[in-house]
Design brief:
F-box domain-containing protein, alpha/beta, 3-stranded parallel β-sheet, 13-stranded mixed β-sheet
Length: 637
C-alpha cells in the first residue's frame, strides 16, 4: 500500500510540474512592456482613412513624398479634382503632367479648364483649345466623371454693361474636342451643353454607339442655352437623360434686346421657346410624366411668371430637395405655386434665392409665406435687392431645429434705413436686435452665418448695437464661420485710414470676437450676458461651461471674385489661431488668411463662396489704398 501511495504521489507531482511549465511558457511575464502602435505598422485601409482627412493639396503633396505606399494612397485624393489654366507659357508643363509615369491621371474625376490671365492675348484661345485637346488625348479612358469649361455662375445683374464679357471668358468651345471627350470618357456623370464653334447635334445623332455610352451614366445635366443651336442640343440631352436625371441646371444667356425675347418666355396662352424646345420630349405638358428621379433644380434668368402651366407640370416639386433660383423674373408666382399642397416640397433641404424685387415686393411676400409652410431646411441663402424689409424672422426661426447655414442679405433702393443711411454708408438692411436674437435663440445648431451687422467704429469702443449682436451670437454654440458683410468705419474721423492700418484694427475687432467666443476677453465679465429663458437657465449655463465655442472664422466684406482660384481685395478673412504672451501663456489670435486658403483650413466656410448683389457695386473697404497716397503720405487731390 505504501508503495502504491508513493507512486501516485510522484505521478501527481510530475503532472503538476508539467502543467506549470506549460503555463509559464505560453503566457508572457506581466512586466513585459507592450509594443506601441506606429503609423507605419497600420494596415493600408486605416492609412487610407487617415489620408482621406487631409484636404489641403500642399499637405497631400508632402504625404506623397514620404514613401511609395503613401504615394499610392495620397495621389488618388490629390488628383481627384484638377483645375488647369490654359493659354499661357505654363502650358509647356502639361507634358510632365500627362506623362504615362504619372500614376495620378487615372484618379482624376473632375476636370476644370480655365483661360489663363496673360498680358498678350494674341492667339491665346487657339493655344488653349490645342492644350485642351492634348489633355483629352492623353488622359486615360473612362476616368472622368465631370468636365467643366470656364463657365461663371451666377450671372451679374441684367442691367450691367459688361454682362456678356463676364459671362464666358472663352470663345465657343471646340466641337471636335467635345466629340473626343465623349468618345474617350464614357462614364461621365455630369454633362454640359455649351456654345460650340459649330452645330454638334447632327454628328451626335448619327453616332448611335456614342449616344448609348455617353448618356448611360449621366445623372447631372447643366444647360447653358444662348442661341438656337444650344436650345436644340439641350432638348436632345434632356430626352436622352430624363429617366435617370437627378440634378438639372438651366442657365440662359440670351441678350435682353433680342428680337425674339418675347417668344423665349412662357405666356398665358402657350409655352415659350425655352421650355418648349428644351423639354420638347415631354409635350404636351398637361399630360406628361414629371422627372422621376430629379432632386435638385437650379434656374438662372428664366421667366417663371406662367410657371403653373409649364415648370410645375414637368417638374415634381413635391420631391425636390435642392432648389436654387437666380435672377428669375416672376419668382413670386413660383413660390405661390409651391405654397399649395399639390406642389409643396416635403423634403426640401437647400433653398437659394437671388432676386431683384419690384416696387410692391411681391417676391418677398411670397417668400415669407413659403418659408412658413415648408419645413426642414438645412441651408438657406437669400440675396434680395430693391426690398423694403428683411425676410420675416418667424419664417427663418421655424427651421431652427434643422438649419445649419444661414445667408441673408437685402438691399434697398429708394428707401432709407435709419441705421445704414446715417452711419454705415450702405443700403444693406440690418435686422432689429429683437429679430436677430429670436433667430439666434431658435437656430442653436447653426454652423455658418452671413448677414449685415450694425455700425461700429474701429477707433472707439464697439457700439451698443454691435455689442447686442455679439451677445445674441452667444446662443450659437456650434457656429464655425461668421461673415459680416458691412464694414466698420473710423468715424468720427474724416480722414480714411491707410489700408494696412485699417486691416490691423479690423484684425483687433475680429480677435475680440474670438476672445468673447472662448470666454477670454477681459471685458467679457462686464458685458451683459446673453438673455436666456428661465426654464433652461441652469442647463444653458452648465452647457456653456462644459463645451467651448467652435467659432473658427470671422470675415468682413463681400467678395468681388467669381474666379475660384483668386483672392478678393475687398474681403478680409481671419481664422482663429493661438499665440503666446511674454509669460508663455496661450492666447487667442486672429490670423489673416486668404479666400482660397480658408477652404482648406476650415471646410465649413462655404458660406463665403456665394456671390452677392453687393459685390456688383462698389463695396471697397473704407480705407486708403497705396495708390491713393502720395510720397509724402497725403491723399492725392
Amino acid at each position: 500500500m505504501a508503495t502504491q501511495l508513493e507512486t501516485q504521489t510522484e505521478t501527481s507531482l510530475s503532472l503538476n510540474t508539467t502543467r506549470d511549465t506549460t503555463h509559464s511558457t505560453t503566457e508572457p511575464p506581466a512586466n513585459t512592456p507592450k509594443e506601441k502602435l506606429q503609423f507605419g505598422t497600420l494596415s493600408k485601409e486605416i492609412k487610407e482613412l487617415v489620408v482621406e482627412r487631409v484636404i489641403r493639396p500642399s499637405d497631400l503633396k508632402n504625404v506623397c513624398l514620404v514613401s511609395k505606399e503613401l504615394h499610392e494612397i495620397a495621389v488618388r485624393y490629390l488628383y481627384r479634382n484638377v483645375s488647369l489654366d490654359l493659354g499661357s507659357p505654363n502650358d509647356s508643363r502639361l507634358s510632365a503632367f500627362l506623362s504615362p509615369k504619372n500614376i495620378g491621371l487615372k484618379h482624376i474625376k473632375q476636370l476644370r479648364l480655365y483661360l489663363a490671365t496673360v498680358y498678350d492675348k494674341c492667339n491665346q484661345e487657339q493655344q488653349a483649345q490645342f492644350a485642351a485637346r492634348m489633355i483629352l488625348e492623353f488622359l486615360p479612358e473612362d476616368t472622368l466623371e465631370e468636365f467643366r469649361y470656364a463657365r461663371r455662375s451666377p450671372l451679374p445683374l441684367p442691367d450691367e454693361e459688361d454682362e456678356l464679357d463676364s459671362w464666358c471668358p472663352w470663345k465657343p468651345f471646340s466641337t471636335d474636342n467635345l466629340i473626343l471627350l465623349y468618345k474617350r470618357q464614357r462614364k461621365m456623370k455630369w454633362l454640359e451643353v455649351m456654345d460650340l464653334d459649330r452645330d454638334a447635334l447632327p454628328e451626335l445623332k448619327k453616332n448611335a454607339k456614342m449616344q448609348e455610352t455617353m448618356f448611360k451614366n449621366a445623372r447631372k445635366l447643366a444647360l447653358y442655352p444662348e442661341n438656337r443651336e444650344t436650345l436644340n442640343l439641350s432638348g436632345f440631352y434632356v430626352e436622352k437623360t430624363k429617366d435617370q436625371l437627378e440634378e438639372l441646371i438651366v442657365h440662359c444667356n440670351f441678350p435682353s434686346d433680342a428680337s425674339d425675347s418675347r417668344e423665349l418666355n412662357d405666356s398665358a396662352t402657350a409655352p415659350g421657346l425655352v421650355s418648349n424646345t428644351i423639354f420638347s420630349c415631354m409635350t404636351p405638358f398637361d399630360t406628361c410624366t414629371p422627372f422621376q428621379n430629379l432632386k435638385s433644380l437650379r434656374l438662372h434668368r428664366i421667366s417663371l411668371r406662367h410657371c403653373a402651366d409649364t415648370w410645375c407640370k414637368f417638374i415634381n416639386f413635391h420631391e425636390m430637395q435642392y432648389l436654387r433660383i437666380y435672377h428669375c423674373t416672376g419668382a413670386d408666382s413660383l413660390f405661390g405655386q409651391l405654397s399649395k399642397s399639390s406642389h409643396l416640397p416635403k423634403q426640401l433641404k437647400v433653398l437659394e434665392f437671388q432676386h431683384r424685387d419690384n416696387a410692391e415686393n411681391e417676391a418677398l411676400v411670397a417668400l415669407d409665406g413659403f418659408l412658413c409652410l415648408v419645413s426642414g431646411l438645412r441651408d438657406l441663402v437669400l440675396d434680395l435687392d430693391h426690398v423694403k424689409a428683411l425676410p420675416a424672422a418667424a419664417g427663418i426661426a421655424k427651421h431652427g431645429k434643422t438649419l445649419e447655414l444661414l445667408n441673408v442679405h437685402c438691399t434697398a433702393e429708394g428707401h432709407t434705413n435709419p441705421i445704414t443711411s446715417t452711419e454705415c454708408d450702405t443700403d444693406e438692411l440690418i435686422w432689429d436686435f429683437e429679430d436677430f436674437e429670436k433667430i439666434c435663440k431658435a437656430c442653436k445648431d447653426l454652423e455658418q452665418l452671413s448677414c449685415a451687422w450694425p455700425h461700429t467704429s474701429l477707433i472707439r469702443s464697439p457700439s451698443d448695437d454691435w455689442r447686442s449682436f455679439e451677445n445674441a451670437c452667444g446662443h450659437l454654440r456650434n457656429m464655425v464661420t461668421l461673415h459680416i458683410s458691412t464694414w466698420p468705419s473710423n468715424k468720427p474721423s474724416t480722414q480714411l485710414l491707410p489700408r494696412p492700418v485699417y486691416e490691423t484694427m479690423l484684425q483687433a475687432l475680429a480677435q475680440r470676437g474670438f476672445e468673447l467666443a472662448a470666454g477670454q476677453h477681459s471685458s467679457s465679465s462686464t458685458s451683459p450676458p446673453p438673455s436666456i429663458d428661465e426654464d433652461d437657465s441652469e442647463s444653458s449655463t452648465s452647457e456653456s461651461e462644459q463645451r467651448p465655442a467652435k467659432l473658427r472664422i470671422i470675415a468682413f466684406g463681400t467678395s468681388d471674385k467669381i474666379y475660384e482660384r483668386e483672392d478678393s481685395k475687398n474681403q478680409f478673412i481671419f481664422v482663429r489661431s493661438t499665440c503666446y504672451d511674454a509669460e508663455g501663456r496661450p492666447k487667442v489670435y486672429a490670423a489673416p488668411v486668404g479666400w482660397c486658403l480658408r477652404q482648406f483650413v476650415e471646410p465649413r466656410s462655404d458660406v463665403l463662396d456665394f456671390v452677392l448683389h453687393q459685390s456688383d457695386r462698389s463695396n471697397k473697404p473704407p480705407c486708403r489704398d497705396h495708390r491713393d497716397t502720395s510720397a509724402w503720405g497725403d491723399e492725392d487731390e
